[in-house]
Task: structure prediction
Amino acid sequence: MADVTMPQLGETVTEGTITKWFKNVGDEIKEDEVLFEVSTDKVDSEVPSPVAGYVAEIRVPEGETVDVGAVLAVISDAPPSGGEAPAAEPAKEEAAPEPEPEPEAAEEPADEAADEPAPEPEKKPAAKAAPKAAEPAPAAPKGNGNGKLLSPVVRRLITEHGLDPAQIKGTGAGGRITRNDVLAVVEGAPKTAPAAPAAAPAAAPAAPKREQAKPEPILRSGERDTAVPFSNIRKRTAEHMIRSKQTSAHVYAAIEVDYEAVERVRRDQKEAWKAEEGFSLTYLPFVSRAVVDAIHEFPEVNATFGENELIVHNYVNLGIAVDLDFKGLMVPVIHDAETKRMRAIAREISDLAARTRAKRLSPDEIVGSTFTITNPGPYGTLLTLPIINQPQVAILSTDGVKRRPVVVDLPDGTEGIAIHSVGNLALAWDHRAFDGAYATAFLRQVKENLETREWSQEL
Result:
């Protein structure tokens, strides 16, 4: 038998949410075959099984958040017997036997939160035994009262909103309080209405109804409004953005860039590039290379905050923000980007973006960034003011590139009007780290690199 535990996907990660199980109890699994999907504040990852065998037990259901190191499942060497396989899957139902409800319930809080205290219904088993014994019986943990265990996310939500867990009706397995239960109370949904008549026998049958409603991802609070619970990554993103705005003295500057030198190379090379590399040549690799070279001239842009100090990095770990189908952002990292030419940078951007969306990043690929680029340009944006990716001191936004008339110098020394590809770059920086002159000089250097470099040599 081997325990499968919650992995630490990143050095600062303390908990994770199980978003999907790829195997059921009794299924055979090979070593390194994907077993489950986990979501953390750093990355969404598919986690392989550490050993080969058979899934004997799944202890943490989908949607639950547990600490790093918690046991999620058990893998056995031999297949479960015909009578044992079904018993392993509903592990939470083992709390149902009436002779010893309290000892069985004591095993549950290791993986799930206990329900609210309500000892009186427990002493009236006749009303609970008639319906399915497996569903009402988890009321046994109600005797835990103030000693109940809650998942880290649920504890944090309850603390933030000043709620009393005893007044929240849990809809999870065994009556545990889930994140949706807390959000329902915060949003004013009528999920906790039955909490008052806790002693009435009629309140007990209500629990199975709520358990049946749990799979719904959307909580409807009325015909005119719909409350959509935050996903794990959406909540983490929101927390990170608020913390960044509260931490850094955000200042913004933007500059217009003539991309015609880049556009000529893209037009000339796009077919050969696509045939050779398998993906399109976009503006982003050019901008990334120009940024890396500009950082060499303005190194304090590539820094993070320490304790009363600015830590200037002598390497560039370039973070590229990737959209996850409008459900959140991840920032995979091109490590040591200063050692790579544009083609290598383009390959890594394409590879990292594809594996980010497929949830196949390793923990090392989403940590350690020193400067970040976000790229809303494909949507045709004019000017985007991004939020700094903590603990960095700056982030660059690449906005839409459009064909526009511009003034150009003619060979005879006069000026004329030409149609060029033009777009904006916007820099958000922390005024605690450096001043506006330094930030705008860095932006000017990025612009100069893009407009004057012989990009055909880079390819």
The mean pLDDT is 79.
